[in-house]
Amino acid sequence: MAKTWNYKTPGLPSELFNQNELVPGPTKEEVRVLTISKARLSEGFTVIDVGCGTGGLTVEAALQVAPKGKVYAIDEDEAAITLTKSNIQKFEVENIVSLSKGKAPEALLKLPSAEAILIGGGGASLRTIIQTAHYKLKSNGRIVINAILLETATTAIAELKAFGYKDIDVAQVSMAKGKQINSGGTMMVARNPITIISATKP
Averaged in consecutive runs of 10 residues, what is the pLDDT profile of the chain (202 residues)? Predict the structure, then answer.
């Protein structure tokens, strides 16, 4: 396990990740904790992370499924791939993660079946990404979709219902983080709410 994080629980502090201005993220620490929890991962599982970005969820998932599991991370952005690679190396999970550049849903077709699929956003392609992910997800596997836009959440819920998914759960997370100010006090700074949609494939 990475020397920079000696715990099994998810929730790597965001400041531990390599970051740059070209790639948003990492996914906020509290959102990562909930996402990994909703994915219900176990050692030895195969996980697909669609739109890995900074690699926050990729690393968190890898630490959960290690040492025998596998995480397949994909992103269409070259800067995101470079940054995720640096974080995979930093947290010493290179032997767990397979990283590739590609655009979903096409990039999903080349990947093996998985016990869990994580989807960040998806934009205009979200519907077809979910449809493709459905065929890559094993029976009783978990899908977790993080949405910033209401339209994204609505599309995700509709698709999961159409496929007959069980235990569809919708949670909107609104957080505020404490920030020290000059007076010595702590001011709470609000962050954008995130909708986390999770479900089990029948």
Answer: 74 93 89 97 98 96 97 96 97 97 94 97 86 97 96 95 97 86 85 93 96
pTM of the model: 0.93
Question: How many C-beta atoms lie closer than 10 Å to residue 101's C-beta?
Answer: 13
Report all structural domains of the chain as residue ranges with CATH numbers, in order of start: 14-200 (3.40.50.150)
Taking a C-beta distance cutoff of 8 angstroms, is the pair 14, 28 a contact?
yes
3, two tokens: 């020397």
